[in-house]
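Loading example: each entry is read as three labelled lines plus one structure line.
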Amino acid sequence: MSIAEIRQAEGRGTSVLGRFLRKRSGVAGLVMLAVPLVAGLCAPLLVRIEGQDPSTLHTDLLDPDGGRPLGAFGGVSADHWLGVVPVTGVDLFAQIVYGIRSSLFIAFGASILSIAFAAVLGTAIGYFGGWFNAVAGRVIDFMFGFPGLMFIIAIMAIVPPEMPRGLVLVLVLAFFGWVVPARVIGAQAGAVNARAFVEAARATGAPPWQIIRREMLPHLFGLVIVLFAMSLPGNVSVVAGLSFLGVGLRGDVPDLGKLLSDSLPWIYSGADVWYMLFPGAVVFLIVFGATLAGDALRDILDVRTEEAA
Amino acid sequence: MIVYIARRVVTAVFMLLAIAFVTISLFFGASKDPARAMCGKPCPPETRAKVSAYMQTDQSAVWQYTEFVRGLFAGRTYGEGAQRVHCHAPCFGYSFPNRSDVTTLIAERLPVTLSLALGAAVLCLVVGIGLGALSAIRKGGIVDRFSTGFAMFGLSVPTFLVGLLVLQVFGFMLNALPYSGFVSFSESPADWAWHLIGPWMVLSFILAAGYIRVTRTQLLNELSADHLVAMTARGASARQVNRHAVRGVLVPVAAMFALDVTALLGGAVIAEKVFSLHGLGDLLLSGVNESDLSIVVGVTLFSAFLIIIGNLITDLLMPLLDPRIRRA
Amino acid sequence: MPDPVLQVEDLCVSFTGGGVTADVVRDLSMRVEGGRTLAVVGESGSGKTITGRAIMRLLPRGASARGRIVVAGREMLSAGERELRQARGSDVAMVFQDSMSALSPYLDIGAHIAQAVRLHDPSVTRRAARARAVEMLDRVGIPGPADAVRRFPHEFSGGMRQRAVIAMALVNRPALLIADEPTTALDVTVQAQILALLRELQREYGMAMLLISHDFGVVGSAADDVLVLYAGRQAEYGSLRDIFDRPAHPYTAGLRAATPRLDARLGAAGERTRLRAIPGVPTSLRDAGPGCAFAPRCGLADLVGERCVVEVPLPTARPAGEGGGPHLAACHLDRLPAQQEVAR
């Protein structure tokens, strides 16, 4: 036994939370994620403290020639904590905290839906195996043939205007999000199903549901949690990316991706880095924080998320 | 072996047909009528019906599907008489707003996409494998820590953020790189590369992450693998052992590379938007913005086909790299 | 006494990592002559595999060995890289527990053996090396050797694969073979075949063998001498007969009592022998205090008293049977009481 192994062995037995808190990258990630999360949750309160709202146009704060915000850092001031948006003069801080809400709401919704479906399907694949596994495997292979992002863009283009785009986004992301997790969970569930204690439970005549619930699910729980944590940042960046491309949320809903997309022309004109940097930093915090936390969680729960090719 | 090849090919063809069916029935079946956009502002019902019949969007999804598949192999003709347009053999549909068949539109965009994809692929492979191997060899060293962090960034940070940052920093603050535009390779190879360095950097930064991780873990696995200890026990030198370890890294890297290249060839939508490049992704977006369904369906299916064909080629080549797959 | 093929003196192996050093093997000495087999026995974690690896200088990163190891007249611990390469595979070769992972999945069986040949004699042509491979596969009893050289490891059964590994190890006629749990991963019937094959080839080539095993049954059927390891230290050393009939260390006695014996039923009339487990778990190398590592599990420590906890017992001579080498045991008790009382 090497020293590292001995240390690792010592780590077992302490609680998951305790081990997570001992992992610096995980804690850092959690903090990075928590700041925007809380800001989004408390958006109305924060904006009221700031004394602004996400829709009032402050044209008086703009350069009448070209519509750039006046003042340093894109018009940062005691009244407008992160400055104002060029051309419209909307308060950027209010836009951002409300934008976090919609992005995270959609990402969480899509992750919950897709991972829940993947968990159910994966467990079924593992438990039933045989023809069910074969059929599900075919469907999964089929899903792999889709060019994910292209397809999502195309679908978002034909969404009828009367449908709520946020909900459609959740569904579309979930529809493409279950594939890889389902395969990973399926493989793991199959391995669990083949182990002796499941065999033993079956031999005692336990009904299928009980076997799944008592014997299999506890062994899949960690994997499901990790897959959820890992799918979240992906969904956040796709939501923002779609808005960036102009096919995400529409209308006057504040949205991080839309802010970034709107900032693009201002980069070309060589000005207003701040308009891009503030929302960009928030997206970065969410995505990178969630990734770090998810990665730490994976290490701690010691689950393998790579597919067995 | 022949059975294996035949099975893979049949599966691939089947997948192509199935994906085409899903796509076409979804888009032509469920969406707003493309004829309305073509028909003009005051659009009396009769005119609209006529336009619809001309564009062949008045037919059922199944009909659309069979026509599309037939068009892929035999070409397709719209309208009659003076208004007759023909779409040649690999017909991915006809874009009436552009007065051009989608295949031609795709072909026009292909040089940009191809340049983008190949450069990014080569760069990410070099950077990814290089950093991954170095971090495995000196595990826990400076390079390892740097590239683990690097990989973490690449895996998580969205493309558009990296793109915007590169654009901002190199394009404007340092004024070191052109921030948009494309020069064809035949015109000036130097200018071609010069204009693509930005997007290449962005895409390979995102993609290299995967290669760093796979190379690192795989090489670490290999280096501590019993069969390499056994090789040392037979009297092989460290260099001979390392050379053999590469073999084990090659297989997963090759599989990943094939997937990435096909995905890149299908269009890098976000990178193209950031750097104002007119590749396949941009074509899709323009189809979306102009409500031109023919383009949307054509481009989506084209990249789906690329992915499936790429997978097929990978499946057929993998057994050459890994004997274990050979008799599966 | 003829010159030993393997001689180990005061071998210590320690792992260093994170500023901590842990000794996994301490003060180990042994000698094996040509044609003889020394079995190294112990529970998992007792340091037996590391000992085998140390002899070939195949220690993992962070491990270092001190002491003296001589293989076929070559000082292994002071040998340079080039010298080591010459020794490995030709003076001393190794058979691994898991034949699947010991073979490269990307090379066919012939390539493995040919590689072993050509690494030590580059003048041999590829063709000739593969011919040697066929010969060798035939020698280890693989049917259809001409065909088998072109097969890949995953296409063999476990027993056939282990035969191939043996062929690979022996192709250069090493003076010493280190067999690390060569039969553990195999079915019982195949185990016996592989052991028989090893014995047969050993006799033919006159090589010395170091048989690493946790299985007293395997040891009993293949070894001449036995070294019992506990927590990286030598617990007992002696001829097979000494170890089996006159165990002088409570741990050895415990191992004996925990191993089923075919002849047990033929023992004293009507007396029923029961298998006994040794209570407790193997001592962690980190826990090692000043005293005897086995003391916490020893049923006899009470007989000795405090000495077991404060003083490390050194190997001292014990009565040996005729013809055997020395019989050493590292226990403060000079004589063990009657066998059944050994483990509590």
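The two ends of chain B are 9 Å apart (CA to CA).
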